[in-house]
Amino acid sequence: MAPRDLLLEVPYRSLDIAEDVDLRQRLAHRDALLWLHHEPFVEEIGYRYDLQDRLKKMFHVKIAQLRMGTRFWSSVRWTVSQRSWSSPVLYYELVSYPIAFLLAVLRGYYDPTPGFERRVDYWEKVVSKRMTISEIEHEFDISIDRSVLSERGRELFCSPTDSR
Prior knowledge:
Elements: H1 4-9, H2 19-29, E1 35-36, H3 51-67, H4 72-82, H5 88-107, H6 119-129, E2 130-131, H7 133-140, H8 151-157
Parallel strand pairs: 1-2
Helix pairs in contact: 3-5, 4-5
C-alpha cells in the first residue's frame, strides 16, 4: 500500500511481467517502502508450468527487466551467479539474453532508476532495508496486533524472540 499522491508521482509503467518489480524499485529509490523481514514462503495458486511454459516465462522476464533499464552485462552476471554451470537452464539463459536484449531495444526501454543500474542493486537494497515486525514498531513508534495473524502468519512474520 502507498499514499495516492506517491503512486501518482511514481505510476506503473507498461512493462509486461515486470510492472510490480519496476514500481517497487522506483519506490525503493525514494526510500518509500517498508521491507518486512520474514521466513521465505511460496504457495502456488493454480499455476502449473511445463518446461516450455517456464522457458517462455523466463524469456519474457528477461525482456521486461532489460526494458526497466537494467544493464545487459549486469543481468548476465546475475544469472551466472544464481545458476550452476552444470544446469542446462544456465545455457538457455545465456543464449536467450542477447535475443531478449534485442527485443527490449526494439520495444523501447527506460533509463535505469538511479542506483539500480545493476540487477543486484535492487536485492542489496532489500536486504539492507528490511526489518522485522518488532523493528518496524520501534522505528515508527507503532504497535502491530499480532493476534490478527494466522498461526502460519505468526510463524512467517514474527521472530521467535517477539514477546507479543
